[in-house]
Request: fold
Amino acid sequence: MIEFLTDLFSNFWVSLAGKLLIVALMIPLVGMVIGFAEMKLSAKMQARVGPYFAGGRWGWAQLIADGVKFFQKEDLIPERADRNVFKVAPILVLISTVGLLVVIPFGPDIIFRDLSVGVFYALAISSLSTVGILMAGWSSANKYSLMGGLRAAAQLIAYELPLVLAVIGSVILAGTMSMTGIVEAQIEAGYPYVILQFLGFGIFIIAALAELSRIPFDMPIAESELVMGYLTEYSGFRFLFFFLAEFANMFSLSAIAVTLFLGGYWLPGIPEDVLAYAGPVIVIGKTFLLVFMMIWFRWTFPRFREDQLQSLAWKWLVPIALVNILVTGAFKVFL
Amino acid sequence: MTSSPSDTGTTTDPLQQFADGVAASVGGEAVIEFGTVKVRVPASEWVSALTKARDELGLVFFSWLSAVDWASEVEVGDPYPEAVEDRYELLATVADLSEGRRVVFSTDIHKSAPSIASLVEVYAGANWHEREAHEMFGIEFDGHPNLAHLYLPDSFLGHPLRKSFPLLSREVKPWPGTVDVEAMPGGEDEEAPEGPSEENPEA
Amino acid sequence: MIDQDLVRHLSESSVSVELETEEMTLNIGPQHPSTHGVLRLVARVEGERAFDVQPVIGYMHRGYEKLSEVRTYPQVTTLVNRIDWVSGYANEIPFIVAAERILGLEVPERAQYIRLILTEMARISSHLIFMASYPLELGAATPLFFALRERERVLDLLEGVTGGRFHPNFNRIGGVKPAYGSGSSTRKVIQDLPEGFLAETREAMDKVLEAAEEIEALVAGNEIILARTKGVGVLPAEVAASYGVSGPNLRASGVRFDLRKVEDYLPYDRFDFEIPIGENGDCWDRWHVRLLEIRQSVRIVQQAIDGIPSGPLQAKVPKVIKVPQGETYVRAENPKGEMGYYLISNGNQGPYRLKIRSASFSNISILPWILEGVLIPDIIAIMGSLDFVLGDVDR
Reply:
């Protein structure tokens, strides 16, 4: 039986279909789990209970119910909106999220595709969502959406640079851009890179929050000012795409941080052969820790103003990241 | 307790002294109405009186400005029991920010040509109050930058707070009559209140 | 020079023109999450900077001044506590005191103390709503729940005494309303305050102090809040005075002036409390002054509960009250600012003319001045810090 399965999956097309299926299922699953975690955690922080009735006492079926609700809503497109662009925008954002999941190593050989330029590819495809957001803001034919889209463009482009610069430290230390290569380098070195690259880690988390447009960087959405920013005119399943994409993106970016800084699927003291089974669990565990931190920030802080946001990126994060690269490079060469 | 402006004499009441001081300074007549100092000035002295109030008397806080429509015949409510001279009385209250002294300045405007100089140059806050008075009473304020409607839609005709402006709901449906106010304790046909007693615990 | 007509045409046309920073006319409201009601701001913006903001009000105008001419005094009380609905009880007081002054009535001490306690509780309730909604406008969603949780305690107490959370109708000319026995035929006074009211109020005040500590810890030291509110929307004291801005907004600009210390509509002179002021007159100071005022109000309530005398709740008044001819102006320190009533009575059961001076009307008349050249997120921050309510603006 096992032989039959391994033979079957060694066929390229079958394994491709299998991988596509898993990735396609992962997005809604991860989105729902993290969405539910956000609802419950934010409730605990605010002296509330959170979802309670849907699906028994824990309310775990809340997001399933929300998903179904979104799907059965009327598909509204504003009259003066640019129809094709309006429809394509959420799909682009989802594509970028899915693309990110492809290069995350869940175990020693468990990865959808190990690219030798994994880091480069990951950063490139995560910036595809910027285009999607701009398209959403522009095509909505609504002044509020336009302003949200413009703010989003400025913010996302500004924070791309710290995001990229922050990971270069880890790449230098590992000597390779392949994601599995970086994890293996951390296993060989015996410590996760965050110990040396704490600046890089900090900058990466801040820039990731800005890329996700989460508070404290949610100017583009800014609920109390622009109603919903670039998302104002989206309803029904298009809004669901954005919604799921945000949570899945949280997962993806956190998983990248885990891989590059926190040691990926490795925990000290666990032998190699166990890692093949425990690896995914470890990765998901560490990722959820980072996701918890992001949720915690969202409900504690207010939002930055646009100019404060920009000055944080350009005047603080980029110089610190450059210094980090310099020091790491010197460390690598001379030691 | 009202006091007439004629018994100035030697009075030790600080409020009366203050009122007389204000009246002397701006050239008007002071009256104390139940604890409120009211100074009447002629309409031509309106702006100069309030400028003096702001500069010399320290009354820098602009509280409000509005008008009263004194009319012998009214469309709504009850008229004044004595005969009144038909006019608009413009009221402006200013105060200071140290001892809480406040003065209500008042002047009369003819109904036939209701217009007066605007106070916008003296107190910036008069802007919106004068717009409201214009909208509600039809008083023209010369020198006001923008006498557009404040509350009412632009297409609204008429000046609602004039006594000659009827309440539409009263025209359509008659007022059911004064509803009897609830009985007061110890009134003429009420006995003194008793609490719960042994035989009657629910009183 | 740019052709003004062309600019106007471009700014009002659809979005599919080329994207340069031209002037755009942005309508904030009347349906908007942050405008505290139906306020509409017509802002001409260039990029993110607004340069000509005109408020459009009147969406909530109910014509109270006209209506009060056809109502009796107790009926006007029901109208009047709907002006500033967040601090319902405090609106009734100056009106009733004006009528009592013209009548020459002496209100019993116990009634005055009860009025004072309830007014201070209304002030706490109004400031807690501000504590809840202001960080929400800046983006922080959590203080909302802490503040509103404590406000529920205060509102429950208010409901227990007066029967209404927001519109108490508890004042009568000559005092406050006693609780009657059940059944419409027995109009005998059972008790004046509900049993245990004073003890529960004391507990609630302690809880309010704790909540104020919590909110201060969460909000006051937060760098992002400081960056969003310090130096934003500075209001100099002279400008504030000439526009008629009053209350915590004026005190945040450094003017140590509180109507509770200079007017005698309630016996505040028997209690010991401070007047907090701010230094710069920016949004941060306006927030901070209101937090400190919550603490002072709690202090006053605790002193009042300790010293409340016994006695009747209402002076002897006839069944149908006619206020003799006269006019007077009574003003009070409402949570939002100075609220005053100029009452002209004509000897009948209702007023001849009632001019309502509401605090928020003057407070927001300053918006065109203060919002000149300001970034759009700051518009929201400044508007929120002025703490107005549309019922108070439009009457």
Remarks:
- The two ends of chain A are 52 Å apart (CA to CA).
